[in-house]
Amino acid sequence: MCLICDRIDMIKKGCNPYFVRELETGYVVIGDHQHFFGYTLFLYKRHGEMTELFHLVSDERAKFMEEMALVAEAVSRAFGAEKMNYELLGMGDAHLHWHLFPRRRGDIENYGNCGKGPAWWYPMEKMYSDENRPGEATLSDMRQKLLEELDRLIPPPSCEVKQ
Ligand SMILES: [Zn+2]
């Protein structure tokens, strides 16, 4: 099974601790590693032939893009980014998913072009170090903060409003 489908399956079973909120076209989840504090993913709901943005019909693509932009705004507000980075990759897992990185000056230390460059220029072993995995309390706090901002930007349907 694809890693993204696996995570979505966990969301549906109610056992994905990174899950924040379901939107029309995808699921918002906090990233496993938090070197870039606030790193969030937006996972497209469907897996299949649609592995490129240009595979989506125009209405669906517009909605997916709009929701992604609002998720990025919520991440920026919740975690205080100087600049958001948006990436849709997928050579590893072809299932459409956005990587949303809050960026701050100095966050790749002196790597890349004297400290300038994409998040991925930070060494993989440092980025994916276990030290960057959020603890339970941090994760819970992050989910709460992001959910508040998301709900402000995209009011949930009334039947889904939590007490
Ligand atoms: Zn998948």
Structure, briefly:
The protein has 163 residues and is of the alpha+beta class. 33% of the residues lie in helices and 17% in strands.
Describe it.
With 163 residues, the protein is α+β, with helices and mostly antiparallel strands. It has a single domain, classed as HIT family, subunit A. The protein is 33% helix and 17% strand. The protein has helices spanning 3-12, 58-79, 124-127, 136-153; strands spanning 19-22, 26-30, 40-44, 83-88, 97-103. The protein has a 5-stranded antiparallel β-sheet with strand order 1-2-3-5-4, with helices on both faces. Helix 2 crosses helix 4. The longest helix is centred in the middle third of the chain and has 22 residues, at 58-79. The radius of gyration is 16 Å and the shape is globular. The protein binds zinc ion. Zinc ion binds at residues 2, 4-5, 47, 95.
Which short descriptors sum up this protein?
4 helices, binds zinc ion, 5 strands, five-stranded antiparallel sheet, HIT family, subunit A, alpha+beta, 163 residues, single chain
